[in-house]
From TrEMBL:
InterPro entries tied to this protein: DUF998
Keyword terms, alphabetized: Membrane, Transmembrane, Transmembrane helix
Protein name from the UniProt record: DUF998 domain-containing protein
Membrane spanning residue stretches: 12-36, 56-79, 91-107, 127-148, 160-179, 191-208
UniProt keyword Mitochondrion, yes or no: no
Superkingdom, taxonomy of origin: Bacteria
Length: 211
């Protein structure tokens, strides 16, 4: 008797890991933001909660941001076992793993207070933090676009690959173009990336078997 598509633990984990990661981030940021007077989900980056001098910086960086990306890396490892061993597949997974790694690096290199530099200029750590975060999002969007194109069978995900990339690119551009709402657009691009992670996990769990 053949087992159903969701009978094995790995299949469930493909769906659960991106969900857990997204909830870990959302709940963690939500709780710590509520404990931080004056924090705005619309105008402030999430990194402000982990910035130098923030009251819950260590909790934000080491209990929220880094574990969030560890869940992502676990998801990518499981996804790798379901995808064909092709050069483009490997490249896309490397880009997505780099996205997670850069955000972990950004957590370990917290930005200056407020994440916008002080009167004396920006510290080297702050600059490294901002570069890591700024590079991470485009890598995630490109990695997701390429990964969807490598799926071994036609699917809705492949048909929506280009529109998904365009939406993500628009959200990333809005972070730069609308600084007064940069926190909102950061959250929207994170949600967009996670929606694609979850869709990939569901597709892999239901349609792809281990290689």
């Amino acid at each position: 008797m053949r087992s159903g598509p969701l009978r094995d633990t790995a299949s469930w984990a493909l769906i659960a890991l991106p969900v857990i990661s997204g909830l870990w981030l959302a709940i963690g940021v939500g709780v710590l933001a509520a404990l931080s007077p004056g924090y705005s989900h619309v105008s402030h980056f999430m990194s402000v909660l982990g910035a130098a001098g923030a009251p819950y910086a260590a909790w934000t960086n080491y209990a929220v941001f880094i574990p969030t990306e560890l869940w992502v890396l676990g998801f990518l490892a499981l996804l790798n076992a379901r995808l064909p061993d092709r050069r483009l597949t490997r490249l896309s997974l490397i880009l997505l793993a780099t996205y997670a790694g850069l955000l972990m690096l950004a957590a370990g290199l917290p930005c200056d207070a407020g994440c916008n530099g002080g009167d004396d200029g920006q510290s080297a750590v702050h600059i490294a933090h901002m570069i890591a975060a700024a590079v991470a999002y485009p890598l995630a969007l490109i990695g997701l676009f390429l990964l969807v194109l490598t799926l071994p069978q036609p699917s809705l995900l492949r048909r929506l690959a280009l529109p998904s990339l365009a939406v993500g690119g628009g959200l990333f551009g809005a972070i730069i173009a609308v600084p007064e709402a940069q926190g909102l657009f950061q959250r929207l691009i994170e949600a967009w990336i996670y929606a694609q992670f979850i869709a990939l996990g569901v597709h892999a769990a239901l349609c792809l078997r281990p290689q």
